[in-house]
Write a structure and sequence with these properties.
This protein has about 210 residues and is of the alpha+beta class. It has two domains: about 100 residues, no CATH class; about 100 residues, no CATH class. Helices cover about 45% and strands about 30% of the residues. Strands 1, 2, 3, 4, 5, 6, 7, 8 and 9 form a nine-stranded mixed sheet that branches.
């Protein structure tokens, strides 16, 4: 198996496991928020759309199961169970995705803002590297990308969108789930951009 294909398969498996872990956290109501960190939500944008997908997929799985049970032929019985398994898997996967947005919020600590997206994407921005904040909306290219580097601008989007920009003091090497990147601005999506901007300004003004 080529290295690139193996890496994609490995990432898909790890994402799958991470989503189920988030779903378990959602069930027991234990967000992935370490002690001393302040959670910052970002799920409101994608929540309604995900719930529609979940409802639609669950309805489809039930309808297909009922229809196939009414067809008295060998081929219908042969495909009924695989269709049911795939339908249940799809609903669980999307529930896990919803859980990942809710159970893995952004994290603000005394010295770092950890920007998250879903189950496995993160970017660490040192508070000392942030010069200012402002509202700024950008769209990421493509509908599935959550991180995009455009020159010195790093976009960490939700639903391919951002609404808050962090201007850094200089080009800074940032740790991310995809490896180190260099940026002078970081844009992210938060549910309450004004409130988060105020939190960051308070953190920047606090003595260290």
């Amino acid at each position: 198996m080529p290295a690139a294909v193996f890496a994609h398969v490995r990432d898909a498996i790890l994402l799958e496991l991470a989503l189920y872990g988030c779903l378990a956290r959602w069930i027991i109501r234990r967000p992935a928020v370490p002690r001393g960190a302040t959670p910052i939500g970002y799920a409101q944008l994608v929540g309604p759309m995900l719930w529609l997908w979940i409802f639609g997929s669950a309805t489809e799985a039930v309808v297909v199961e009922v229809v196939l049970r009414q067809i008295d032929t060998g081929w219908a019985e042969a495909i009924r169970l695989p269709f049911l398994v795939v339908g249940i898997w799809g609903v669980l996967w999307m529930l896990g995705l919803m859980a990942s947005y809710r159970m893995r919020p952004h994290l603000l600590t005394d010295d770092t803002l950890r920007i998250r997206n879903s189950a496995r994407t993160w970017v660490d921005v040192p508070l000392a590297a942030i010069a200012s904040t402002q509202s700024a909306e950008h769209e990421l290219p493509g509908i599935v990308k959550s991180v995009h580097l455009d020159g010195g601008l790093l976009l960490v989007g939700v639903g391919s969108r951002t609404n808050l920009e962090l201007k850094l003091t200089e080009s800074t090497v940032l740790r991310t789930s995809k490896g180190d990147v260099t940026a002078d601005r970081v844009d992210l999506w938060v549910d309450d951009p004004r409130g988060v901007a105020a939190q960051l300004r308070a953190g920047l003004a606090a003595p260290r």
